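pasting for the record
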Amino acid sequence: MPKTDPRIDAYIANATDFAKPILKHLRKLVHQACPEVEETIKWSFVSFMYKGMLCGLASFKNHCTFGFWKSKLVVGDNGKDDAMGSFGRITKLSDLPSDAVIVGYIKKAMKLNEEGIKVPRPARAAKKELIVPDYFLAAVKKNRKALAAFENFSYSHKKEYVEWVTEAKREETRAQRLATTVQWLSQGKSRHWKYANC
């Protein structure tokens, strides 16, 4: 007998009428293909776990989604990969591939997890040189502590301050932000220091 989570039963029961048969059918296929699967709720959506994230489904007001955690490796170019799923917006069972195809995808996803294969990350773009305006540097240099903190900050922390100041539309706002920047830097605070311990 499959291991089910009562939260998933409740999720399906609370779904709109068109979605219920879709969600029930997909859930059944996942359990059929992977009897060891564990159900859970992640990010407020139904998730199926098998040696890591396997797949998930969700219901919205006008459509459902079903997708694989490693979608590109599982469905390749056959998937739509939009609307948070591998098969696009699903509004009726006929929007899905055949049961045999879905079961095949589930088994492929299982094999990827069993073998520990990870989705390749896209190559990071090279960091752009941070252009610090002269007026910004002049203000920071007037305070030794602020200058020392700014120079020791990581690229991303420096960028947060520079963008915050330079993106101000009015001169008054820019001046206010620059004064706050110098004050916070002199205390060794990052731009988002208020949220650091949240």
